[in-house]
Design brief:
By secondary structure, the protein is of the alpha/beta class. It has two domains: about 5-160 and about 375-475, FAD/NAD(P)-binding domain (3-Layer(bba) Sandwich); about 165-240 and about 325-375, 3-Layer(bba) Sandwich (FAD/NAD(P)-binding domain). It is about 35% helix and about 15% strand. The chain contains 18 helices and 16 strands. It has a five-stranded parallel sheet, covered by helices on one side. Strand 13 and strand 14 form a beta hairpin. Helix 1 packs parallel to helix 15 (about 425-440) and helix 15 (about 425-440) packs parallel to helix 17 (about 480-490). The two termini are about 30 Å apart. It binds flavin-adenine dinucleotide and NADP nicotinamide-adenine-dinucleotide phosphate (NAP). NADP nicotinamide-adenine-dinucleotide phosphate binds near residues 210, 215, 324 and 371. It holds the Pfam family FMO-like. Keywords: FAD, Flavoprotein, Monooxygenase, NADP, Oxidoreductase. Its EC number is 1.-.-.-. InterPro entries: FAD/NAD-bd_sf, Flavin_mOase, Flavin_mOase-like, FMO-like.
């Protein structure tokens, strides 16, 4: 009998999962809570553009149209591109829009039985004759209407940077409730139409909390709306290596970090003795590359002048997938005084505004925008009804989410997660993973024992801890995209070496175009 695959989410990852499962003869059903495709790209702030250069954020078999000439397309261009992809591969017919999955429940084996398994799902296979997932879905237009589906395999593509905001915690009476102005999250701001957002901040003393991409973009928009008359204050706790462009000192960044040579400079999960030796010998070069990029960023953005030189290395930023592009002219706004950068390791609210820990003065403000990120882990955990799966999906508090090949939890059968673990070019990463999942579903290869998968996830965790510092929980493949893809290729029976000739293989950057065909 035909196996039923359910995909939850129709963002970039869900579309890819749909396309590749269809290519293997499945007829997946895609549940999407919203009424359109595109996920995070549906609601963004006005200045949001692709941060990844277009060629690296591209479907391997569906290039950007010639009409998009920009290297960093805007929100509408990205959405159009995703729409064209969905139409081209006839994916829309699989999607159930306005249908939110409330929870998924595994049926077929007891918790005790599952704990005794040595192979994924008990048999090492993606499907089982008795194991099923029960998917409870709600019609978001009519919340009284829920439906239950029984499926053989679930691919979770629910995204990490939406829906569940990360709101800082405060002692009693020192949180937003103490403040007489408005407090919103960047998600609320992004959900407004551009013009409404502009009107909303106009004439207000705005404080933005956070110093990553959303924070910088929103601060930029506020400073454009209000100028020096009502400067936008940015409350940050960590300086970051935001990139002004991808050409430090004229050298394209991919030549420093996205080729095989650059990967020789870092220790890799599962490496042999020779590679380990090479990584140790080349460590000084790794440091030199990082300093090379840092010196360029420092100079271009005048970071020393503004007291914004980060304490960690660029390599650490890259390995944590924290790379964000700085909006053009951001530090000009700082210089002219329409953006004020204020370090605040910890803060609380009072009636008139914000108090930075250890300081007496109140930072008076009318509106606080918390650009403090999202709780993607909570979303992932809450989709499971079973307490056992809720506990194991996130791993221990001092490890990254333990997914084999960043897709499969060894102890959760008949299920894959796509798009949780990040990279510096997420579309391409999700595409490789979806191809791998499709081959797994098609029985091209089998997964090893649960113990082997757990050991592999541990090795990746150690790698993250070594190179990402305090951001290791961010789950990401960091600066090892090629090494990671090599593992997927080997599993699928593809040649991992995709270039012509020794020097090209060693020095040319890798990207989606290298994986067009198996
Ligand atoms: C504003 C913004 C810009 C970004 N820019 C870049 C960039 O330039 N380069 C880059 O590499 N990455 C970027 N990213 C990272 C981005 O998350 C990925 O590139 C990618 O778009 C994520 O796709 P996804 O499908 O995994 O998740 P999402 O886009 O988050 O899609 C998840 C989908 O699942 C749906 N969903 C969630 N829960 C349920 C449920 N219970 N039931 C039904 N449906 C559900 C959601 O409605 C959503 O449509 C950006 C992220 C943001 C927020
Ligand atoms: N393409 C685009 O233009 C675009 C636009 C927006 C977002 N994005 C992407 O979307 C994702 C989410 O971005 P994001 O900016 O929302 O989140 P983020 O990258 O997770 O950054 C969160 C920021 O909030 C700070 N923060 C978190 N908790 C805090 C607390 N309790 N107190 C004070 N500060 C706190 C963090 O500080 P620390 O650094 O000290 O932890 C960090 O500066 C990222 O992948 C980003 O690249 C892309």
């Amino acid at each position: 009998m035909e196996k039923q695959v359910a995909i939850i989410g129709a963002g970039v990852s869900g579309l890819l999962a749909c396309k590749y499962t269809v290519s293997k003869g499945f007829n997946p059903i895609v549940f999407e809570a919203r009424n359109s495709i595109g996920g995070v790209w549906i609601n963004t702030v006005e200045t949001t553009k692709l941060q990844t250069p277009k060629p690296a954020y591209q479907f391997s078999d569906f290039p950007w149209p010639d009409s998009v000439t920009e290297l960093f397309p805007n929100q509408y261009q990205v959405l159009d591109y995703l729409q064209s992809y969905a139409h081209h591969f006839d994916l829309l017919k699989h999607i159930k829009f306005s249908t939110k999955v409330l929870g998924i429940k595994y049926q077929g084996a007891s918790d005790e039985e599952m704990q005794s398994w040595s192979l994924w799902g008990g048999n090492g296979e993606p499907f089982s004759s008795r194991g099923k997932w029960i998917v409870e879905a709600q019609d978001t237009q009519n919340q009284h209407s829920t439906e239950v589906y029984q499926v053989d395999f679930v691919i979770l593509c629910i995204g990490r940077f939406s829906d569940v905001p990360n709101i800082p915690e405060f002692p009693p009476d020192k949180g937003p409730e103490a403040f007489h102005g408005d407090v919103i999250h960047s998600m609320d701001y992004a959900n407004m139409d551009y013009e409404i957002a502009r009107d909303f901040v106009r004439g207000k003393r705005v404080t933005v909390v956070g110093f990553q991409k959303f924070a910088m973009d929103i601060a930029m928009e506020c400073s454009i709306a209000n100028g020096v008359e009502h400067p936008c204050r940015v409350l940050y706790r960590t300086e970051h290596w935001h990139v002004p462009d991808y050409n430090p000192w004229g050298v394209p960044l991919p030549y420093l970090y996205l080729n095989r040579f650059s990967e020789l400079m870092v220790h890799k999960p599962g490496e042999g003795l020779l590679l380990s030796l090479l990584a140790t010998i080349l460590a000084p070069l790794r440091l030199a590359f990082s300093k090379f990029v840092e010196s360029d960023i420092k100079k271009k953005l005048r970071l020393a002048k503004f007291g914004m030189v980060p304490k960690h290395s660029f390599l650490q930023e890259l390995n944590s997938c924290l790379i964000a592009t700085v909006p053009q002219g951001f530090y000009d706004k700082v210089e002219e005084g329409s953006i004020i950068l204020k370090k605040a390791p910890s803060f609380s609210f009072c009636k008139e505004g914000i108090k930075v820990q250890g300081e007496d003065t109140t930072l008076e403000t009318d509106l606080v925008i918390l650009a403090t990120g999202f709780k993607g882990e909570k979303k992932l955990k809450d989709i499971f009804e079973s307490k056992m799966f809720q506990d194991c999906i996130l791993g221990s508090p001092d490890s990254a989410v333990p997914l084999c090949r960043e897709c499969i939890h060894p102890r959760i059968p008949q299920l894959a997660v796509i798009g949780f673990s990040e990279s510096v070019a997420n579309l391409y990463t999700s595409e490789m993973r979806c191809r791998w999942i499709a081959e797994l579903l098609d029985s091209t290869f089998k997964l090893p024992s649960i113990k082997t998968m757990e050991k592999d996830a541990e090795k990746w965790d150690q790698y993250l801890k070594q190179y990402s510092g305090r951001y290791y929980r961010r789950s990401c493949i960091g600066a090892l995209h090629i090494w990671y893809n090599d593992q997927l290729c080997k599993d699928m029976g593809w040649n991992p070496k995709r270039k012509q000739g020794f020097f090209a293989e060693l020095f040319e950057p890798y990207g989606p175009a290298d994986y067009v065909s198996p």
